[in-house]
Amino acid sequence: MKNAVYPGSFDPITNGHLDIIRRSAQVFDKVIVAVVDNPNKNPMFNLEERVAIIKQVTKDISNIEIDSFSGLLINYVKEKNMDVIIKGLRAVSDFEYEFQMALMNRKLDKDIETLFMMTNSQYSYLSSSLVKEVHRLGGCIKELVPDIVIEKMTNKL
Ligand code: ADP
Asked: In angstroms, what is the span from residue 124 Cα to ligand 1's centroid?
């Protein structure tokens, strides 16, 4: 049985993230979407809100679990007895940092593998930070995030 952890800030979850979650859930027996607790990054949504939103928009996917963690990802992955870390890749610009991270994580634990999943081309320019910026300035973010996310973001403004 192969299990994977898909870690991220998900502040907020976008359709790019959702696409990776759906595709990962088809490849693995079980996927944990692990929301990182990063209070000093000053997130728009706190940890509980991010977890609740992801639960709501993924309730039709049966083999996933939504959880949160703080500290080293590799420790969390081991603690949960998982085998694989999933990362989404959008562009060459993601590569350098992710490459460095994957090698560091392998150095910390050689038994845990990092797998990269290529973004769907329609989401290749999409990031949570860009979505927040466009929404704040009054731009339309429909089709980039689930409707419920637009609603919650509008309430925050
Ligand atoms: P971001 O703020 O860049 O969206 P996250 O930490 O929330 O960052 O991202 C979590 C994971 O999802 C990372 O592996 C990231 O590369 C990936 N990801 C983010 N946006 C997309 C997208 N549009 N398509 C595919 N993968 C993505």
From this structure: 10
Q: Which domains does the chain have, with CATH numbers?
A: 3-156 (3.40.50.620)
Peptide bond into 39 cis (omega under 30): no
Q: Which residues does the chain have with pLDDT short of 70? A: none
Task: Answer yes or no: 135 catalytic.
Answer: no
24, 87, 128, 132: the active-site residue: 128
Query: pLDDT tens digits, residue range 59-76?
Result: 999 999 999 999 999 999
Q: Which atom of ligand 1 is nearest to the CA of 123?
A: 23
Run of H or E including 16: helix 15-27
Distance 68 CA to ligand 1 centre (A): 16
Query: Given the structure tokens 């979505």, which residue do they identify?
Result: 131
- Output the pLDDT for position 148: 97
